[in-house]
User: Which sequence fits this backbone?
């Protein structure tokens, strides 16, 4: 083993310490975002690999024998298998890739191995996008790509370094990074061309990660005290809305309907009331498909929903036509999908903000709408009976009375209410009188049911912020809201927002205004929110132009250029053309930089002078001295021989004598600027 | 006009033209009249003289190597000795010998031909290595040690050696370390037809040599040598020189490139050349003018080399861009 190692290192030099440091650094940065997803033993493996390889450098240890490396490899594969039950798939595949990266690190004997590792690191950078496609990650990975490219440069430059001196020279790092960055910039036009022209699938390129069940959930299908409060602290976007035309519904109408909750067990509300199934009298199809009816104020819009891992979709109250595709609208206007939303998902909707719902309803719906746990909240039940006696059959008056009570009797909208006991509604209505939407809608719905009025809790979002240009509505998790709907004879299901009765500003100006003075987190400052809004605009552009770039968008982009259908042969042709053009331009720029840039001012002026002559058929070869060239050029263009000699003299004075100074430089520059090649070229001389 | 003033003050082509320069020009003319059609070689030979180095002339017999050496000696007025090297020559034949004098009853030292200011070592590769190294040691040290006594050689001390590169039977090729002692290696080459015609028409070269005058006396030569050391080399020029030297070390076909001593030799010769061109600063052309003569014999070629040393040195010149 050691013999072959020695032979190899003689033939092809081993990577030196500097290359190794760069390599370890860039690999660590490339793997870093994967870390939370990887098994716990993975960082340890990396550390061991680095230490093992570093020991070759520091203490001249021998590398691990090849049989040991083979065993380690098998062990690692087994480890991945035991963690994931497979070695295929997204998670397991990436884990396997990372193990191989770590193992290969302890095997970097030659510079060729470094190349392999660098390629692998590039690939790992790409795999990050299988899990997350946010712009922040993209920016981070771009930076990592620069560092990996810098590692490539450092590795490439190794033969030029003196291997005998221990390299601790990091002063070259900014320069190397600058070069790497410049190399990536050169690749930019190519990247854009590939992005625009690469044949696209019908769905966006970054496909559905099937096993990605993590991340934010937002509104769920059950509600208990505290579940919405968790969302208040969360300023991350829930969804964005583009309204068609000029429609901009006012804040008071922006009720984004989510799951409707029917069942109350005394502590929590949930969607799937067991009684609906157990009832046995469910003659109606659960889905009503398209709801026909008169539409007063149709609002058309597109919702772009962030991943929720849930089935629920959100629509402006009240949705009148279900969107296309795998979606259904249930009888209680809950909009859902057949598969969880695991990535950014867009759908078009039409809603009517003034629409009344199902004026007729069936007995079973009323029964479900009156369901209550028997053993809870006796005082509320008492109050309900009392109210019922007082108002008789006038349900509307009863509702109005309750809302007025909320408004007048010292109920407070608060973000930090005191805890409630076993009889949650009793405690809230008669003791604490302090809470937010969840408390109010829950208590109100309970009270209505107790009074014999069918009621239900609706969860979703309320409000949003218009921003950006063109204007769109951003709805955040912190806009989460819960309200009630009661069934009134002749009117059908009517929306009642008890929170609005207590804190009208919640609805008019959003949760933030309603909770004015109550900071929701350590980072809750106005400027932070402002910054976050700015970032969201960027984020939206990213989603719109990068993540959602699919076949249709590609077509829309290419149509103005006259490409109707992008077949793969056209794409290849176009790409080839662009690559040729870009490479030519970059080469020209590079050569220009080599000729002009990086020279001292006198040489730059002289290079300009040479270019002028070169254009007239007298090129200076790189190895030709200035006087030789001057003689040749003067012979070719006798008419300007004196100018040529004078410029050459000035240049030599500037560059090769002791007496070069700024005034001489100015003289040279002026002479070169005014120099024109005149007269006919004496071809016999040149 | 201030512009004019500045220009003329800045890039004066020379050093003040001293008497030494005019004498140098006369000397160049005189040698040029004797060795016709060989101006570049003559100029390089003078360069070597001013750079205070030894000269190796390499060519087949009858090309005027000896004539050139003699012309140089006569023109500079240096005392001159010629040693014809043979294979049975001993170091003592060059350095001198101590003989017992019966009249004086003491040992007398009879200095060898090396004790002269200009030594022409003809066919140096015919001598055995032992004899060669005696000469070469003297060239390096500028002193000889005979029987424990160190004797200084006269100053200046020039060696112009010749060797025939074709007829190699019974010769001992100079090892690299000894070739390195020569500042330059020059090839005479055939004369141009017009020059050859002049040679045929004019008087015998030996007669011309006899009539030749001392044009560049020793003290003026020393003035020039001193001036050459003051020729300015700018950073840009040193960059170029280093690029050239560096290129020889990684040039295909070259096994061993130029040593730092080789780089110093090029710099010294370039300075002397610049002085001949009447300049007080170096320009890339100066380096290019002397490069092949100074560098070629210092390159050790690999087995795969496709050209001879001079051609490779020329290729280096053509391929290294001037920074």
Assistant:
């Amino acid at each position: 083993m050691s013999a072959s190692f020695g032979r190899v290192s003689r033939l092809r030099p081993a990577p030196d310490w500097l290359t190794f440091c760069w390599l370890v650094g860039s690999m660590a940065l490339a793997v870093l975002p994967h870390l939370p997803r990887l098994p716990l033993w993975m960082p340890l493996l990396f550390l061991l690999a680095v230490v093992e390889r570093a020991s070759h450098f520091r203490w001249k240890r021998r590398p691990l024998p090849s049989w040991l490396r083979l065993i380690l490899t098998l062990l690692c594969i087994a480890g991945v298998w035991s963690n994931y039950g497979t070695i295929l798939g997204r998670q397991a595949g990436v884990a396997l890739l990372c193990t191989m990266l770590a193992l290969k690190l302890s095997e970097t004997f030659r510079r060729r191995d470094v190349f392999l590792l660098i390629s692998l690191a590039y690939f790992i950078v790409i795999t990050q996008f299988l899990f997350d496609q946010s712009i922040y990650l993209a920016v981070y990975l771009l930076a990592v790509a620069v560092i990996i490219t810098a590692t490539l440069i450092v590795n490439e430059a190794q033969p030029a370094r003196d291997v005998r001196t221990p390299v601790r020279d990091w002063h070259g790092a900014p320069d190397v990074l600058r070069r790497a960055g410049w190399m990536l910039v050169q690749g930019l036009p190519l990247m854009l061309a590939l992005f625009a022209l690469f044949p696209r699938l019908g769905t966006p390129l970054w496909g559905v990660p099937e096993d990605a069940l993590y991340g934010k959930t937002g509104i769920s299908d059950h509600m208990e005290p505290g579940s919405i409060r968790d969302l208040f602290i969360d300023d991350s976007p829930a969804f964005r809305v583009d309204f068609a035309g000029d429609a901009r519904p006012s804040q008071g109408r922006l009720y984004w309907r989510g799951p409707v909750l029917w069942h109350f067990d005394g502590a929590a509300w949930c969607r799937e009331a067991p009684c609906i199934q157990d009832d046995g009298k469910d003659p109606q199809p659960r889905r009503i498909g398209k709801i026909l009816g008169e539409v007063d104020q149709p609002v058309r819009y597109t919702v772009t929903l962030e991943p929720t891992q849930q089935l629920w979709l959100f629509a402006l109250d009240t949705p009148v036509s279900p969107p296309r595709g795998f979606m259904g609208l249930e009888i209680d206007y809950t909009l859902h999908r057949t598969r969880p939303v695991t990535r950014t998902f867009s759908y078009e909707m039409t809603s009517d903000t003034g629409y009344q719902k199902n004026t007729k309803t069936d007995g079973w719906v009323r029964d479900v709408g009156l369901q209550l746990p028997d053993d809870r909240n006796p005082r509320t039940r008492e109050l309900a009976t009392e109210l019922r006696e007082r108002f008789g059959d006038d349900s509307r008056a009863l509702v109005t009375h309750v809302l007025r009570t909320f408004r007048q009797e010292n109920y407070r909208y608060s973000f930090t209410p005191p805890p409630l006991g076993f009889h949650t509604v009793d405690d809230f209505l008669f003791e604490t009188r302090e809470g937010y939407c969840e408390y109010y809608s829950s208590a109100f719905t309970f009270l209505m049911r107790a009074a014999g009025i069918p009621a239900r809790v609706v969860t979703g979002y309320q409000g949003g912020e218009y921003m950006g240009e063109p204007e769109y509505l951003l709805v955040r998790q912190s806009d989460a809201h819960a309200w009630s709907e009661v069934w009134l004879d002749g009117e059908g299901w009517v929306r009642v927002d008890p929170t609005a009765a207590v804190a009208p500003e919640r609805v008019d100006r959003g949760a933030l205004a309603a909770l004015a003075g109550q900071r929701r987190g350590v980072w809750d400052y106005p400027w932070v929110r402002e910054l976050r809004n700015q970032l969201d605009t960027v984020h939206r552009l990213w989603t719109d132009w990068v993540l959602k770039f699919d076949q249709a968008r590609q077509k829309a982009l290419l149509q103005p250029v006259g490409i109707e259908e992008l077949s793969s042969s056209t794409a290849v042709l176009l790409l080839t053309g662009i690559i040729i053009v870009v490479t030519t331009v970059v080469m020209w720029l590079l050569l220009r930089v080599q000729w002009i840039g990086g020279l001292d001012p006198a040489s730059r002026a002289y290079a300009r002078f040479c270019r002028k002559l070169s254009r007239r058929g007298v090129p200076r070869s790189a190895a030709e001295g200035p006087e030789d060239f001057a003689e040749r050029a003067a012979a070719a263009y006798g008419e300007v021989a004196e100018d040529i000699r004078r410029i050459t003299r000035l240049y030599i004075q500037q560059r090769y004598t002791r007496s070069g100074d700024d005034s001489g430089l100015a003289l040279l520059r002026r002479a070169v600027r005014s120099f024109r090649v005149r007269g006919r070229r004496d071809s016999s001389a040149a | 006009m201030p512009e004019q003033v500045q220009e003329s003050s800045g890039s004066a082509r020379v050093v003040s033209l001293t008497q030494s320069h005019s004498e140098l020009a006369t000397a160049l003319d005189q040698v040029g009249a004797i060795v016709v059609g060989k101006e570049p070689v003559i100029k390089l030979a003078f360069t070597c003289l001013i750079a205070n180095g030894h000269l190796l002339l390499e060519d087949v017999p009858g090309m005027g190597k000896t004539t050139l050496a003699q012309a140089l000696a006569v023109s500079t007025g240096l005392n001159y000795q010629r040693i014809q090297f043979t294979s049975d020559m001993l170091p003592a034949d060059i350095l001198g010998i101590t003989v017992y004098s019966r009249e004086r009853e003491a040992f007398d030292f009879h200095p060898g031909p090396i004790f002269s200011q200009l030594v022409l070592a003809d066919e140096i590769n015919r001598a055995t290595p032992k004899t060669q190294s005696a000469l070469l040691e003297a060239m390096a040290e500028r002193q000889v040690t005979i029987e424990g006594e160190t004797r200084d050689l006269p100053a200046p001390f020039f060696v112009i050696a010749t060797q025939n590169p074709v007829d190699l039977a019974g010769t001992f090729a100079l090892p690299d370390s000894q070739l390195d002692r020569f500042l330059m290696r020059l090839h005479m080459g055939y004369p141009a037809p017009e020059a050859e015609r002049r040679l045929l028409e004019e008087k015998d070269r030996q007669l011309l040599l006899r009539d030749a005058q001392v044009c560049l006396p020793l003290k003026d030569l020393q003035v020039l040598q001193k001036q050459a050391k003051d020729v300015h080399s700018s950073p840009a020029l040193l960059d170029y020189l280093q690029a050239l030297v560096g290129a020889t070390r990684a040039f295909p076909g070259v096994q061993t490139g130029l040593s730092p001593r080789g780089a110093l030799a090029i710099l010294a010769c370039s300075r002397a050349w610049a002085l001949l061109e009447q300049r007080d600063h170096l320009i890339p052309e100066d380096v290019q003018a002397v490069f092949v003569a100074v560098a070629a014999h210092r390159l050790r070629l690999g087995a795969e080399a496709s050209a001879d040393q001079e051609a490779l040195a020329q290729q280096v010149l053509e391929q290294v861009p001037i920074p």
Remarks:
- The first strand of chain A starts at residue 222 and ends at 223.
- DSSP finds 25 helices and 19 strands in chain A.
- Residues 596-674 of chain A form one domain.
